[in-house]
Write a structure and sequence with these properties.
CATH superfamily of the largest domain: Aldehyde oxidase/xanthine dehydrogenase, molybdopterin binding domain
Strand order of the largest sheet: 1-2-3
Number of domains: 3
Shape: elongated
CATH architecture of the largest domain: 2-Layer Sandwich
Structural class: mainly alpha
CATH class of the largest domain: Alpha Beta
Radius of gyration: 35 Å
Largest sheet: 3 strands, mixed
Strand content: 5-15%
Helix content: 40-55%
Length: about 325
């Protein structure tokens, strides 16, 4: 940038060419907004500023590349996260409010004749507010999770001697409360009350989650009361068809009161924990305990599944024979 050409340019033209030059004018108290139509040489003469000094400062700003070319794909994830926070987040935090202030100023001065600048200022205010929340979420939730995942990868998170591995970033929670009635003559189980409460973190689609919960419950009912691979003493499978291998249908599905407790995870970007087939794990012990409680007066000990009517009847008969 040469002084001879810069001197004749207006403040507005210089800032429009590269917005970073606005910092130079702001430091010297030069209005580049409403006063932007004045030539640089003229404003320096009016304010008693040294044109050569300001020109050098402008050249220093323009000599810095707006964005250095980097091979980001080769960077370690934690380093990349730090770079984004310290470079781009810092820039946005520093300039968003300043730009919003300029937009409000322009709207206040020119809004009567140019109503579009009022709308622009309002839109930018909303963008700045949303951006601030987004930056906070990235810095407090997403990037910490990225660092933890990368640390686990580097440390070699491998299965232990029992072939177990912690493969999840976060876990949901579930509680089941079940009241049953057992027919003492047939061993048939009837559900009287059922409450299933889940903490899946932030729920994005309640209907999908409800479907997952109900699906896992009916799956668990099958494993708890009906489904069994039975064999006779010769190793012959006795449940080789659906005539003998029983599965629950809509007729066996009880009324279930489903509740949700949302405590958002700090380990995921959205605060979600997941739900999936959670009740498939909690329902079998809940049903087993409910039946054990109902049969406790008879001295029945429940220690295996499935608790089909036939199996329950044999457990009751065994307990009665032991008493007699």
């Amino acid at each position: 940038m040469q002084a001879s050409t810069t001197e004749d340019k207006t403040i507005g033209e210089i800032v429009a060419t590269d917005y970073r030059t606005a910092t130079v004018f702001e430091n010297h108290g030069i209005d580049f907004c409403c006063g932007g139509k004045v030539a640089l040489g003229t404003i320096c003469a009016e304010k008693g500023l040294d044109l050569a000094t300001i020109t050098r400062e402008l050249e220093a700003v323009l000599s810095e590349p707006a964005e250095r070319s980097q091979n980001y794909s080769s960077w370690a994830l934690p380093f990349l996260a730090d770079y984004i926070v310290n470079t781009h987040h810092a820039y946005l935090k520093e300039n968003d409010e300043q730009i919003a202030a300029y937009a409000r100023k322009i709207a206040g001065v020119h809004g009567a004749h140019h109503p579009e600048v009022i709308r622009i200022a309002a839109i930018f205010d909303r963008i700045a507010t949303d951006m601030a929340a987004h930056l906070k979420e990235e810095e407090e939730v997403f990037f910490p999770a990225v660092r933890r995942v990368d640390a686990a990868r580097i440390s070699g998170n491998t299965p232990d001697e029992q072939d177990r591995v912690n493969s999840s970033n976060t876990y949901g929670f579930v509680a089941e409360a079940i009241v049953v009635e057992v027919d003492p003559d047939t061993g048939q189980v009837r559900f009287l009350k059922w409450a299933s409460v889940h903490d899946a973190g932030k729920i994005l689609n309640p209907e999908i989650v409800r479907g997952q919960v109900l699906g896992s419950i009916v799956q668990a009912i099958g494993g708890s009361l009906y489904e069994e691979q039975a064999y006779d003493e010769n190793g012959q499978c006795l449940t080789a068809s659906f005539a003998d291998y029983l599965c629950p249908t809509a007729m066996e599905m009880p009324k279930v009161d489903i509740g949700h407790f949302e405590s958002q995870s700090v380990l995921t970007a959205l605060g979600s924990k997941g739900c999936g087939e959670s009740s498939a794990m909690s329902v079998p012990p809940a049903i087993g305990n409910a039946i054990a409680d109902a049969l406790a007066p008879l001295g029945v000990i429940v220690d295996k599944l499935p608790l089909s009517p036939s199996n329950i009847w044999h457990l009751m008969a065994k307990a009665k024979a032991k008493k007699n």
